[in-house]
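Lecture 7, part B: from sequences to assemblies.

Below are the input chains for today's worked example.
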Amino acid sequence: AQKVTQAQTEISVVEKEDVTLDCVYETRDTTYYLFWYKQPPSGELVFLIRRNSFDEQNEISGRYSWNFQKSTSSFNFTITASQVVDSAVYFCALSDGYNFNKFYFGSGTKLNVKP
Amino acid sequence: DGGITQSPKYLFRKEGQNVTLSCEQNLNHDAMYWYRQDPGQGLRLIYYSQIVNDFQKGDIAEGYSVSREKKESFPLTVTSAQKNPTAFYLCASSIVPHNEQFFGPGTRLTVL
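Predicted structure of the full complex, as structure tokens:
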């Protein structure tokens, strides 16, 4: 069965620190997609990145970077030089390999960035 | 502006009442979804629809119903059969199933 684990419930950092949010997934599918979403206090989820299971290249987008390692079933997210505006809940999600309509979300990591 | 709208933002209902949550999108997406979020938890899929006049149950469909009569609209009815309906409800859409889903601002439902 598919499962996403975000073991870090809450993380607090001081502005300008780097922070890594962990995501570990379980699936028996060979084709699947992984996602990261940000949920600010307003509640609306904001899409950050999508990765398919055949693309293990790391990705960098500004201060954000993602490390996908199939060998450890992990898809970790790093924010470099964190800012107060990064404060939010971050969710990792995994698509079902047979029914891509089904997403499995982790329980989220709340990131607090203090000035 | 293209996007997803949900109304109302806050909704209160008495026990035993059915209530309908609205979700409209103007992104021309075929697929639409309803999720439920409880405090400190991730999102759980209630129903989804890949095309007009077709919808499928998700993981927690009991006590909920949906319709998809128009491409842009996917309302969710929370029935009195839902034992614990107080939650944050999020609607989403995607152009194709394996693509990213775009979310609306959500409706917070409280049962009094």
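Note for the exam: Chain A has no helices and twelve strands. Keep this in mind when comparing with the next example.
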